[in-house]
Amino acid sequence: ADFGFERVSLAEKQGRVDDVFRSVAKRYDLMNDLMSGGLHRAWKSHLIGMLRPGRNRPFRHLDVAGGTGDIAFRVLEAGGPDTDVTVLDINEAMLRVGQERAGTRFSGQIEFVTGNAESLPLPSNTFDAYTIAFGIRNVPRIDVALKEAFRVLKPGGRFLCLEFSRVDLPILEKIYDAYSFHVIPRIGARVAGDKESYKYLVESIRKFPSPGRFAAMIEEAGFSRVTHRVLSGGIVAIHSGWKV
Ligand code: SAM
């Protein structure tokens, strides 16, 4: 069923998002691989390649909507001994999976924090970089989350967002539509036992602003030198901005 997000309150929308990720947390990583055919790994690596955490200098990183830790682990692998990452997510079930995956690796360099992207429980001017991967489209007030990103970054800090976008080739669009409306909810039903959550996923992608509009929102939050690039024919986009 359509979640009818236009008709529900912001709190209710967040509540439904939370239900989705609580229900899929344990199978989230497997689902990501199945649904993207492993492509999410390449997209995430691309994001880290743009970030280039220094190996020989302190680097404080914040990964918001960090879920099961995929981005955080990659930042720590690419960075040096003075890199540390805060993984923030609103959903404790997702963070618990992340903590289990981290085990004793990166001890002292990774911290898991429960919190909301719209009101980060973190001090201003603290981080060298802020990432959010496949997270911002779940946040009810994107403009508020962007302002929070700007607040917690140090001057000179980098904002990077990886998110689903709009496929720009008509032939690819047809395949993508068929895949997302028919195949994804079925895989969701079979593997996670949760078809509705994956229908929600597809709907939320459709409702997300175009790359140009999203870039304008990032500028409105205060960021400079805002750019974006699309990957895989527009299936995803990476937006970048700087706090100067
Ligand atoms: N970044 C991870 C990745 O790329 O694999 C996880 C992405 S997952 C699709 C979306 C995550 O956003 C979920 O873990 C969910 O709990 C989190 N989330 C949703 N609303 C949020 C909010 N308002 N603040 C922080 N995290 C939120």
From TrEMBL:
InterPro entries found in the cross-reference section: SAM-dependent_MTases_sf, UbiE/COQ5_MeTrFase, UbiE/COQ5_MeTrFase_CS
E.C. designation(s): 2.1.1.163, 2.1.1.201
Binding-site list for S-adenosyl-L-methionine: T68, D89, N116, A117
Enzyme class, UniProt record, top EC level: transferase
Sequence similarity: Belongs to the class I-like SAM-binding methyltransferase superfamily. MenG/UbiE family.
NCBIfam families named in the record: MenG_MenH_UbiE, PRK00216.1-3, PRK00216.1-5
This protein's name: Ubiquinone/menaquinone biosynthesis C-methyltransferase UbiE
